[in-house]
Amino acid sequence: MSAEPTPHVAVVGGGVAGLVAALRLAGGGVRVTLLEGSPKIGGKLQVSEIAGLPVDEGAEAILARRPEAVDLVRELGHGGDLVHPGTTTASILSHGALRPLPSGQVMGVPSDLRALAASQVLSPAGLARVPLDLVLPETPRGDDVSVADFIGARMGREVVDRLVEPLLGGVYAGRADRLSFESTLPAVAAAARGHRSLINAVKGVRAHAPADPGPVFATLTRGLGRFPHLIADAVTAAGGEIRTSATVRELRRTPDGWRLTIGPTRDPEALDVDAVVVACPAPPAARLLAGEVPAAARELERIETASMALITLAYPASAFRRAPHGSGYLVPSVEDRQVKAVTFSSVKWPHLRDADPGIIVARASIGRVGEEHTLQRSDEELKAAAMTELSVTCGVAELPVEARVTRWGGALPQYDVGHADRIARVRSAVAAHPGLAVAGAAYDGVGVPAVIANARSAAGRILEYLESRGDENDGQAREAEGTRP
Ligand SMILES: Cc1cc2nc3c(=O)[nH]c(=O)nc-3n(C[C@H](O)[C@H](O)[C@H](O)COP(=O)(O)OP(=O)(O)OC[C@H]3O[C@@H](n4cnc5c(N)ncnc54)[C@H](O)[C@@H]3O)c2cc1C
């Protein structure tokens, strides 16, 4: 009997999701070809130098309390490059001044009323409204509800505007009146099913946190943007192929598997494979699935994305009258400023400060969902907006020695009300097509560890399918042998 050829799987997209799926598949003994449309791998994880320091242009921190990302760094042999933030204190710009983020909160939802009062983030009226949560009857919420509707009903709108939305803004650049309570605050939402009061639900979440959980976040000394390259090296070492500048334009079913059309329309290339993992953001995934899985494509099309720009400024340390002491600050949209958050990278990451104590690097972000017009400005205008923010709020009185603008179009998928049901519908439509799986930030969490988990399970489903197909072929071959005259 002739040996079965090794199955060939294509992975579309070379961000963390695609790379992790490719690694799992290559480790599962199949032939893998990863196709990345842009000239470089990594997607939202990119690093480049500013003032001689490696500073991330996109994602910079991995949650260390979930195992997937830090464990993968260690498995790849780079555990020694992991470093943790030098401080976890952060501020909120509220009523015109920087206020400490109150202790006792979970993603901005407060549970310690004294700490909340001491922080002065809320107005006296806003503060007085919060404890009503303890006496109000249960707030009905059905299967899902917006963050603003639920938390606003329990604690008042100021908690939403001045605490929860700015914190969620750091993850989704989204609006609390559209984001799903169930999908964006899953731990709080689950606890709130068992408590009438949201304050008590948050206390419950905190009580269940491990006593000594260790550092919350980690990064790599040469930037988190190195992470995709470490994964890619492991993919190629396991025999996988990684192609860049290879945009997949079409996906079609064939009698034996799938045909991908790659490259420019005038010079297309066809690649026939046994199975495919579509690991690109929702808009291109919708376009690729439109022909064969229109039901999934229609759902993915409806996932909106937020665009943003990160302006990285390298100042001489003397530019700050007082050296910044926290990791940065968040700016609620009700403050009506152009910048929505500032990270003091040199304070948050001591390895950057140690590499050059004479430089303070700050990263300012601009742009929320539906505010694309704010990004239709020149790089010089965006740099000026970021410098003005640092001058007004932190008294910075000098120009940066270097400034860099990174634009992220369609950067962050919005997990709007009903997101979990939408993703269930996408998955069930995709599952009807053997040898097809989807992965990435649009599905079960935008953070890097969640994306890793979801990419591994997508690759796992493909391996299971290929195995079952192999068993079926073996069975048919044995049957054919048995019936041979
Ligand atoms: C500015 C910013 C800061 C962030 N900060 C953090 C952070 O600190 N911590 C954290 O955990 N998360 C952070 N995130 C979120 C996290 O980085 C992303 O959710 C995650 O990296 C997404 O990975 P992905 O592989 O799903 O998608 P992507 O990184 O978007 O990768 C998808 C890839 O698919 C490619 N592609 C698209 N269409 C095609 C096609 N047709 N053919 C071939 N290739 C295609 C793209 O070029 C891209 O490289 C941040 C996100 C942004 C934008």
TrEMBL record:
Needed cofactors, names only, are:
FAD
Q: Which domain of life is it from?
A: Bacteria
* Biochemical pathway: Porphyrin-containing compound metabolism; protoheme biosynthesis
Q: Which reaction does it catalyse?
A: coproporphyrinogen III + 3 O2 = coproporphyrin III + 3 H2O2
Q: Extract one GO cellular component term from the record.
A: cytoplasm
Query: Biological process GO annotation list?
Result: heme biosynthetic process
Where's it found, cell-wise? Cytoplasm
| Protein known as | Coproporphyrinogen III oxidase
This protein's species is Actinomadura harenae
